[in-house]
Design a protein that fits this description.
Shape of chain A: globular
Order of helices and strands of chain A: EEHHEHEHEHEHHEHEHHEHEHEEHEHHEH
Strand content of chain B: 5-15%
Largest sheet of chain A: 6 strands, mixed
Radius of gyration of chain A: 19 Å
Distance between the termini of chain B: 39 Å
CATH architecture of chain B: Alpha-Beta Barrel
Oligomer: heterodimer
Number of helices of chain A: 16
Structural class of chain B: alpha/beta
Mean pLDDT of chain B: 94
Number of strands of chain A: 14
Low-confidence stretches of chain A: none
Radius of gyration of chain B: 17 Å
Number of helices of chain B: 12
Shape of chain B: globular
Largest interface: A-B, 39 and 42 residues
Helix content of chain A: 40-55%
Distance between the termini of chain A: 53 Å
Low-confidence stretches of chain B: none
Number of domains of chain B: 1
Mean pLDDT of chain A: 96
Number of strands of chain B: 9
Largest sheet of chain B: 9 strands, parallel
CATH class of chain B: Alpha Beta
Strand content of chain A: 15-25%
CATH topology of chain B: TIM Barrel
Strand order of the largest sheet of chain A: 3-4-14-9-10-13
Order of helices and strands of chain B: HEHEHHEHHEHEEHEHEHEHH
Chain lengths: 400, 271
């Protein structure tokens, strides 16, 4: 397989592109140019590697989850520990890359959108590190759900801007971030948190996150001397999944498995499974799978995890789905909660609720596979931020 | 022989009369489609030269709070893209004022872009202005638009570099929409002098008339911008009147009064 996407106009097959207002078009062309130069500049790569190693704490460990493997009685399960990164999730890989790019472009201010708050915290962190002004747009509903991360961002010196429009969640935060960017585009760099948005964001976020898959590939080679049989990751916008998948795209013997949030079920109107149950459309600068009605109005997404609560998905996942290079399934809130508790009790790892969706899928497939098979799983983030949500969900059950 | 479009005819007539086009914007379906039908006729009677009809969208990323709210009201009232086309069909029987549908690409894409263009032409739509469909992405719609005789209006912004501006302006259809500031609709106070410099440059290379919009809220703004632009778009300020008087019997008379005032500034000698 010779996989080369995006094309020179930022398209992943029919997906991706640059569906933005003219005011932003020159900024995107400038960013594309700056990134193309940085990508081939050894000095930029050296700097990126330096901060990933010494500031983020990379390489992150690849951990053989022996007890989980025994318990499930099938394939060997390896966890790529992105939860052990500085700030507690994979998000920081991308924000380090983008802040270095922003600095290279001479920008002094950065903005970001955030859902669970992990990307907001990761952006506020690198903004503090490089002395840049930082504003984070966050839905009112998410501010309520993720109070801890809001406080972290404020401590880091960022201004958190409450977004009350629309559904007051991640998609609306992105709308308001784009509105702010249109107004301040001349001096502001927009740090997008996932592999979505207009070109070149899906490409550059994927590239910065590919450190996940590249390291895991090498670590698994050392541990087992082979490739995994499958790579599994949860998907909201899809940045940790894209980072895990991309280095394996040409290794067609490796199954790529993306796990979306099924919320209360993909046959209900409360889920966030854009690929499993959505249709093609254009939102936030790119063409991709979306949750929308017949008239092209975007619908509410729902997931117990704020980070997956988005009615779209990165355009490259849409392509990987259509060319059948990756498979996409969906896991419900309940299944994710179950997996969350199992991993906690059996391995002593409290993962993010987002990550628990990937674990839930592993719990479904590992027992069906032979013991010599290997599952590589992105443990994308830690669960401290979700304690309130989990407590609420569990207490409600205990009351019955 | 090619028949001159309603838009071209309108601008040619205005030029002869030494007037600047007044282009009001209203969101279709705010407060409901029947009211919009009456509003369109009122606008045309009161002096609107072209009318931009906003197609409501759930995620209007280029709009400020006023038009966001109008979009929400229109969607809550059950407005669909098919409904907007029916509205145009209906009012087209009563007015020849050019009607431009303005909005976002997704509803059009979901309708089926080619089918939409054909249906829009049949309904009597004169042009489309799709805020998030830059020339780089308009390939899948531009061919069928040319065939159907509707214009795809190009937007240019203060951030557009000169080389790009020249290229896009030369290829423009209908009229050019110059975005008066970096921002969303209904944004901060405009600076007519900065706009004048940009618009005068633009007119040297433009193949079509140049209209200016975003942030023009008062008769004074309209007069200042009308002195050098071929057209002036007023959106949020008008939508605000509809927001405040949507259920009132005085809605049409208040809207008419505002339009008459604006048009007066665009017909009176500018200097």
């Amino acid at each position: 397989m010779n996989y080369q996407y995006p094309d020179d106009r930022g398209h992943f097959g029919e997906y991706g592109g640059r569906y933005v207002a003219e005011t932003l078009m020159p900024a995107l062309l400038e960013l594309e140019q700056a990134y193309a130069e940085a990508k081939h500049d050894p000095e930029f790569q050296r700097e990126f590697d330096y901060y990933l190693r010494n500031y983020v704490g990379r390489p992150s460990p690849l951990y053989f989850a022996e007890r989980l493997t025994e318990e499930l009685g099938g394939a060997k399960i390896y966890l790529k520990r992105e939860d052990l990164n500085h700030t507690g999730a994979h998000k920081v890989n991308n924000t380090v890359g983008q802040i270095l790019l922003a600095r290279r472009m001479g920008k002094k201010k950065v903005i970001a959108e955030t859902g669970a708050g992990q990307h907001g915290v990761a952006t506020a962190t690198v903004a503090a590190l490089f002395g840049m002004e930082c504003e984070v747009f966050m839905g009112k509903e998410d501010i309520r759900r993720q109070a801890l991360n809001v406080f972290r961002m404020k401590l880091l010196g960022a201004k958190v801007i409450e977004v009350a429009s629309g559904t007051a969640t991640l998609k609306d935060a992105m709308n308001d971030a784009l509105r702010h960017w249109v107004t301040h585009v001349r001096d502001t760099f927009y740090v997008i948190g996932t592999v979505a948005g207009p070109h070149p964001y899906p490409e550059l976020v994927r590239d910065f996150q590919s450190v996940i898959g590249n390291e895991a590939k090498q670590q698994l080679q050392e541990a087992e001397g082979c490739l995994p049989d499958a790579a599994v990751a949860c998907i909201g916008g899809g940045s940790n999944a894209m980072g895990l998948f991309y280095p394996f795209v040409n290794d067609t013997e490796v199954r790529l498995l993306g796990v979306e949030a099924a919320g209360l079920g993909v046959d209900t109107d409360k889920h966030a499974a854009s690929i499993s149950a959505g249709s093609t459309g254009v939102l936030h600068g790119n063409k991709t799978y979306l949750l929308q009605d017949d008239d092209g109005q975007i619908q509410h997404a729902h997931s117990i995890s704020a980070g997956l609560d988005y009615p779209g998905v990165g355009p490259e996942h849409a392509l990987l789905n259509d060319i059948e290079r990756a498979e996409y399934v969906a896991v419900t809130d309940d299944e994710a909660l179950e997996a969350f508790q199992k991993l906690t009790r059996i391995e002593g790892i409290i993962s993010a609720l987002e990550t628990a969706h990937a674990i839930a899928q592993v719990m479904k497939i590992a027992p069906t596979l032979d013991k010599d098979k290997i599952l590589l799983v992105s443990l994308s983030g830690r669960g401290d931020k979700d304690m309130h949500t989990v407590a609420d969900a569990l207490e409600e059950r205990l009351k019955v | 022989m090619v028949k001159m479009s309603r838009i071209a005819t309108t601008f040619a007539a205005l030029k002869q009369r030494r007037e600047t086009a007044l282009i009001p914007f209203v969101t279709a379906g705010d407060p409901d489609l029947d009211a919009t039908a009456e509003l369109i006729l009122t606008l045309a009677d009161a002096g609107a030269d072209l009318i931009e009809l906003g197609v409501p969208f759930s995620d209007p990323m280029a709009d400020g709070p006023t038009i966001q709210a109008a979009s929400e009201r229109a969607l809550a009232a059950g407005t669909t893209l098919a409904g907007v086309l029916q509205l145009v069909t209906q009012v087209r029987k009563k007015t020849q004022t050019p009607l431009i549908l303005m909005g976002y690409y997704n509803p059009v894409f979901c309708y089926g872009a080619e089918q939409f263009v054909r249906d829009a032409a049949a309904a009597g739509v004169d042009a489309l202005l799709l805020v998030d469909l830059p020339p780089e992405e308009s390939g899948e719609i531009s061919a069928v638009m040319r065939e159907s005789g509707i214009d795809l209006v190009t937007l240019l912004a203060p951030t557009t570099p000169p080389e790009r501006m020249k290229r896009l302006a030369a290829a423009a259809e209908g009229y050019l929409y110059y975005v008066s500031m970096t921002g969303v609709t209904g944004g901060q106070k405009i600076s007519p002098e900065a706009i004048r410099v940009a618009v005068e440059e633009l007119k040297k290379v433009a193949a079509v008339p140049v209209a200016v919009g975003f942030g023009i809220t008062t008769a004074e703004d309209a007069r200042a911008v009308g002195a050098f632009a071929d057209g002036v778009v007023v959106g949020s300020a008008l939508v605000k009147i509809i927001e405040e008087n949507g259920q009132s019997e005085e809605l049409l008379s208040k809207v008419a009064k505002f339009i008459v005032e604006l048009k007066h500034e665009l017909t009176a000698p500018a200097n």
